[in-house]
Amino acid sequence: MTEKKRGKALNLGESRILIAGAASLVGSHTADLLLEAGAREVILLDNFAFGSMDAIAHLVGNPRIKVLRADLMRLPDLLAATENVDGVVHLAAYMTLGFAQTPWQAVDVNIRGAQNMLEACRVNKVGKVVFASSNAVYGYGSGIHGALVENGPFHSEGAPPAAILYGVSKIMGEQLCRQYHQKHGLDYVVLRYSTVYGERQHYRAANSLYIMETYDRVKKGERPLLPGDGKDTKHFVHVSDVARANVAALGSTATDIAVNVSGPEPITTGELVKLVLDYCKSDLQPEVKPDPPDTVRLTSGGAFHIPHELAGREIGWQPEVRMKEGVERLLAWREAQEAG
Amino acid sequence: MTEKKRGKALNLGESRILIAGAASLVGSHTADLLLEAGAREVILLDNFAFGSMDAIAHLVGNPRIKVLRADLMRLPDLLAATENVDGVVHLAAYMTLGFAQTPWQAVDVNIRGAQNMLEACRVNKVGKVVFASSNAVYGYGSGIHGALVENGPFHSEGAPPAAILYGVSKIMGEQLCRQYHQKHGLDYVVLRYSTVYGERQHYRAANSLYIMETYDRVKKGERPLLPGDGKDTKHFVHVSDVARANVAALGSTATDIAVNVSGPEPITTGELVKLVLDYCKSDLQPEVKPDPPDTVRLTSGGAFHIPHELAGREIGWQPEVRMKEGVERLLAWREAQEAG
């Protein structure tokens, strides 16, 4: 057995943790868990371009919470923000839609923004960085099938430019982490989230819209739409599991490694629609909707799944929330919101 | 047979062409060929951070040549430089060594610099952009073997961060071209150069140093060094062939496509050392030099080659200079330099 490289493990009960891109689904759940773990202070950094005060409203006023409006493109802001900080969870990023609509900002934030944050962490000797990456580093298209393991290549055949730009921007962020580790000894863990869903879901992530759109149609009495044959694979992960992975990575001795963070099992789009219909106690039949001829879809080459065993070994994490429970929790939250 | 997409072909005899990163090996040879083809004006843009006036000294004074000191990071400079320009050859980039030593500048130039240039081309309705990419978009390590075809994935297992950063920066440049084509109709051809070598060789590209270093040792009467077993594959392309590919791409109707630009055949490091020894009429025996244990080398998973048939079909180009001739030309130039 080869010796694993070991780095700094934070004692969360004594730590000040900064979350970048905190006013978000993953950010707010991570802050909740850090407070539970006894963190001395949790700094919620966001420029509120996409982040919303709604996502963190329940945290504001807590004496251990500090909300900080700052922008990743201003290194001096980050140098100030990371003073005496023990750990950083770097979530802030544009996704595929951002690379399609606002590619200048997306390049800024995902690459230079990550670089600025790593530089600030180096200067202020931050003990541990958790960098939020994505299964987008495996790419799209015909090459995507079977197990997407951590040392696999990036596929792009047939994918639209914005999706490829997003994927390689995440590869770049990961490699900037590696470079800071090699050059400066900065400890980091890359977590490659699969499609995140859950309570406080926003409407910005293309993939996770699926559950919400189906629910909205069923509530209006319309048949849910099933693009293709309903056999497309999705591999979601519930936001509470993602938050636990972030906290586990901060508290583990793992360093200089990238691990998948995925849910217990993949699901087909057909099964997913069925879960929503079951939740709604609806007997509507899904309507198969062929794609218009010029549609660009982020399809795979066949059934795939995203193993998370490496995360188990490296940071002692495994997912807990199965799709049925997760969809129920998300939709119950949605109903409570509507009931207002 | 499917219809190929067709775009703007420049009539070179009536064109003004801008070369970005022109004070370079590829830039100067491309300018030579454009003058031969009768171009009205050739604008040699460089910030001279790495570019050298030596490389373009033979062109200065030609009334059809304009030397322009400008920086890719200043969009206003590029907006001015591309006014009334018909075609752009975008060469300016940092390579792997740059991503290791100066990652901030490398990110700037390879990503934002490319984006700035594409934006300037959009605004000034430039007819055709040739974007210099690299076989680095196929990556490194165990995944690299056999034919590296244009729709292949990016491999990174075992590669150092700087090499991966360089490779994905080129993927990003390519995809920004695609995005400008899809959004704004900008015509472009991506040329993925393999390892360029030839007269006016600089000492900045890690791979092509091989020929020069072997030559230097032999000239000093020292046995040439052969890392590993001499069976590593290299696939070079002579700079005169690269220059012809640039000109062919400008003059072709090809658009929205990426093609390999590689030499007639790959070569092993052992065969390459032999070519240099033959040129020097030396009977020195290569010395096999095992790598030190912590060496990070950009190796492949086995013999590979980079097919260029797609370039033949798309831009009517194929390489002409075989390794023996190319090495002889390079070393004859080197000897003439030394003779001064």
Automatic annotation (TrEMBL), chains A, B:
All copies of domain NAD-dependent epimerase/dehydratase, residue ranges: 17-253
Domain of life: Bacteria
Coiled coil: none
InterPro entries linked to this entry: Epimerase_deHydtase, Lipid_A_modif_metabolic_enz, NAD(P)-bd_dom_sf
PANTHER family: BIFUNCTIONAL POLYMYXIN RESISTANCE PROTEIN ARNA
Protein name: UDP-glucose 4-epimerase
Organism: Pollutimonas bauzanensis
Origin organism lineage: Bacteria, Pseudomonadati, Pseudomonadota, Betaproteobacteria, Burkholderiales
